[in-house]
Amino acid sequence: MKKVLINSMIIWLPLSAAITLSFAVLYLTLQQNIRMAANDLPYHEALDVRNSLVKGGTPQQVIAPYKQLNLSSSHSAFVIIADQQGTVASSATLSGHAPLIPSDALQNAGENGINSITWQPANGIRNAIVILPYATAGGRGYVIAGQSLIEGEKRMTILSTIIFTGLVLISIVSLVITILFQYCKIIRVV
What we know:
Elements: H1 2-37, H2 40-54, H3 59-63, E1 69-70, E2 78-83, E3 86-90, E4 92-93, H4 103-112, E5 115-122, E6 125-136, E7 139-148, H5 150-189
Parallel strand pairs: 1-4
Antiparallel strand pairs: 2-3, 2-7, 5-6, 6-7
Helix pairs in contact: 1-5
């Protein structure tokens, strides 16, 4: 029986490593897909706002249709318009003020034409934001649109549990099958 277990482990350990690697790739793929999908709504909102500004709308006019929300209690989409001096207009507040976007995130958007990041303005508040630069006759600035990551993170927690459970079950089943196969091989030889 000892020989069966040793031979089984020699076969099963590389198989287990391959199974674990496959599940890790699956997890990372799903996690990245969910996170990148969180940028879709902010990207389209930022694009629409930028187009309205370029067509002559003022920041206050463009922001007006958006519901005013507090980032600490709402998961809805929001839009912020900023220039080099700071926030010009915002549909979002945090602690009673328009939230400040990191200047390096704005600079990166200016250099690359877009910047999509995970932004955590306070503990427990994580947002997917897309930053687009704009230029009008009135000056240059940035459109920042975002939404909470809470729903995507909840979804990923559920998927993580399913993936981990699948990994454990498949690992156990593959070990049992490997042991049975080795045991049957020895019985045939004797």
